[in-house]
Amino acid sequence: MDQSELSPARRRTFLTVMLAGIGAAVGAMFGWPVLRYLSPRSGADADARVRVPRDKVPVGGAHFFEFRGRPTVLLQMRPGEFTALTAVCTHLGCIVKWQQNKGEFLCPCHGGRFSATGEVLGGPPPAPLQNFPVVLDGDQLVIG
Ligand code: FES
To answer: Which end of the chain is more exposed for a tag (fewer CB within 10 A), N or C?
Structure first.
């Protein structure tokens, strides 16, 4: 037998190790972005505040914007009364829509309904929409 040839058992071990290595590399390549997407954001912007001009929020209407990297909505149900809520449905994360004629939010994915204060009115959402503090500063609304 030639000394340069590998025995079938060593060849099998070599192939197993190579396939395991390639599998681990491919798993890491696809798994890392998924893990980053699913993991909570760092607390670096947890104290961030955002300013929105007051006139962007009509009475009875909604204004959608980004806050801490997530869709957020401002409402003014009565003149001078502002509410800021996350616009991300607590069921599976779809973005809720404001229905001005009904005065409530509707999630287009599975029909979840939320009140103007974020409480669950119906459908599968397990929890209310998160509320953020809003302070009026001149003609600006400060959220956060
Ligand atoms: S994601 Fe909103 S009801 Fe399912």
So the answer is: N
